[in-house]
Amino acid sequence: MAWIAFPHIDDAWVYSAATLKLAWPQLHLGDSEPLPKKPALVEAWIAFHAGHFARAARLGLDVGVEGYSVAHKASCIYANYLEPNERKKFALFEEVAERCERHQLEQPDNPAGYYWQAYALGRYAQGISIVKALAQGIAPKVRAGLDKAIRLAPAHADAHIALGAYQAEIIATVGALIAGLTYGARRADCYTAFQQGLALDPESAIGRIEYAHAMLGLEGKKRSDEALALYRQAAAFTPHDATGWLDIEAARAQALAAQGGQ
């Protein structure tokens, strides 16, 4: 299926092999992805950071298992932010989750195979409703994937942030008692996970967005000022690539909505 083009191309995000290497630590502070050595993978990541998500996914898959990480990420970011058709969006998340099964078998020590499966299943769950997802048994797989990713890569900021978001969603859906007993989701652990993630990646816009969502979902209006502050902080960041721009635009929209609701 054809993917919609990224709407905001910026020459600043069109890296060369040399500039990508220099920018890599900042660009991948959140996901602990190692710098690729194969020229084809360098090209795939250059495409990803520029916002050419379909090209990035295709180039990654052409490489094989070593290219799965960029293919997972390109597919998930595109599906989450740019695909307007729900059926196609869900199909992409399911495709990534299935491909991650192969990834885990072929590279069992690569955190990307576990993290992106958890991400894809988590976004799929949000789309169909958390209640339905719980009934389908998705939650334990999401938790297991995040826990495994963190064990393999303790500095994986995005996995810590996703673990916080996972716990917040579960608690808000079934209540603190059942969430803790059945799913191991606890409010204190939720906030700790966000704090760990943001300590590892201090300029994570998506981390602040998810943290604000969690505050509002768990505690409502009494945390609205703090949530608005997080949205505003995220909205004030400077993007270093296309995904950063998408995150920051989402933060700006959330800040406006939150400010209007006060």
List descriptors.
mainly alpha, 14 helices, 262 residues, single chain
Give the topology.
Layout: H1 17-27, H2 39-50, H3 53-63, H4 68-81, H5 86-106, H6 111-128, H7 130-135, H8 138-152, H9 157-174, H10 176-183, H11 187-200, H12 205-219, H13 224-235, H14 242-260
Characterise the protein shown here.
The chain contains 14 helices and no strands. With 262 residues, it is mostly helical. The longest helix has 21 residues, at 86-106. It is globular and about 50 Å long.
Distance between the termini: 41 Å
Mean pLDDT reading: 94
Largest sheet, strands/sense/barrel: none
Number of strands: 0
Pick out the low-confidence regions: none
% residues in beta strands: under 5%
Discrete helix count: 14
Order of helices and strands: HHHHHHHHHHHHHH
Cα radius of gyration in angstroms:
18 Å
Note the overall shape. Answer: globular
* Structural classification: mainly alpha
Helix content: over 70%
